[in-house]
């Protein structure tokens, strides 16, 4: 089932999310719905707050990037990278910071360069509540960091300079008032 994606300005996007346990109601359905919602919006990551839930859960699927010639050198790493992250904790960020033009399904039509570290060490549970501690680099790390920010109540626009924040403020206000055209289901703040 495709869920409506919460737009910038919705209070749930600013919540520090709480952990869940393996008995969380309808967890499998929720994960399936999040993947379906993300794919229908042509996204590569989606966090629970973006569908109105303040829980520490996000999904990523960067496999579409494997077809992009810009990522030919890491296509093998990207092509099957589809994961569920529950109760994630980034333990370490390392390497050089690199800029990349990010966007967000909750903030349509806004894209800006964001600096992030190139490698992360993260602890999380998968959809079967098996615990993992893994290291990820490249676009995988970036997408995970972006989605991880969501469960911490942080949006990619929070990483922008004061000047850039001022420049996108008008667009953000329009989004929060529903004055944006999207091809996917959205829920705007009241």
TrEMBL record:
Q: Which cofactors does this gene product need?
A: Fe(2+)
Q: Which Gene3D superfamilies match?
A: Peptide deformylase
Q: Which SUPFAM superfamilies match?
A: Peptide deformylase
Active-site residues, record numbering mapped to chain = 147
Q: Which UniProt keywords apply?
A: Hydrolase, Iron, Metal-binding, Protein biosynthesis
Q: Look up the EC number in the record and give it.
A: 3.5.1.88
* Recorded GO MF terms: metal ion binding; peptide deformylase activity
Q: Is Amino-acid biosynthesis tagged as a keyword?
A: no
Q: Where does Fe cation bind?
A: 104, 146, 150
| First-level EC class | hydrolase
Q: How is the cofactor bound?
A: Binds 1 Fe(2+) ion.
Question: Which GO BP terms, alphabetically?
Answer: translation
Catalytic activity reads: N-terminal N-formyl-L-methionyl-[peptide] + H2O = N-terminal L-methionyl-[peptide] + formate
Q: Which NCBIfam families match?
A: pept_deformyl, PRK00150.1-3
Protein family according to the UniProt entry: Belongs to the polypeptide deformylase family.
Q: What does this protein do?
A: Removes the formyl group from the N-terminal Met of newly synthesized proteins. Requires at least a dipeptide for an efficient rate of reaction. N-terminal L-methionine is a prerequisite for activity but the enzyme has broad specificity at other positions.
- The entry's protein name is Peptide deformylase
Organism (species): Chryseobacterium salivictor
């Amino acid at each position: 089932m495709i869920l409506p994606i919460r737009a910038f300005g919705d209070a749930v996007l600013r919540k520090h999310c709480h952990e869940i346990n393996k008995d969380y109601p309808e967890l499998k359905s929720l994960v399936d719905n999040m993947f379906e919602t993300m794919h229908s919006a042509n996204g590569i990551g989606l966090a629970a707050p973006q569908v109105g839930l303040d829980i520490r859960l996000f999904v990523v699927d960067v496999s579409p990037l494997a077809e992009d010639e810009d990522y030919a050198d890491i296509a093998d790493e990207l092509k099957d990278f589809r994961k569920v992250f529950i109760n994630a904790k980034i333990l370490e960020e390392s390497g050089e910071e690199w800029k990349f033009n990010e966007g967000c399904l909750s903030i349509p039509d806004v894209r800006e360069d964001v600096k992030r570290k190139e490698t992360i060490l993260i602890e999380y549970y998968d959809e079967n509540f098996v615990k993992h501690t893994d290291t990820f680099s490249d676009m995988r790390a970036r997408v995970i960091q972006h989605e991880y920010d969501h469960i911490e109540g942080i949006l990619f626009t929070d990483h922008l300079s004061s000047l850039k924040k001022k420049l996108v403020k008008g667009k953000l206000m329009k989004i929060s008032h529903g004055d944006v055209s999207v091809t996917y289901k959205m829920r705007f703040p009241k």
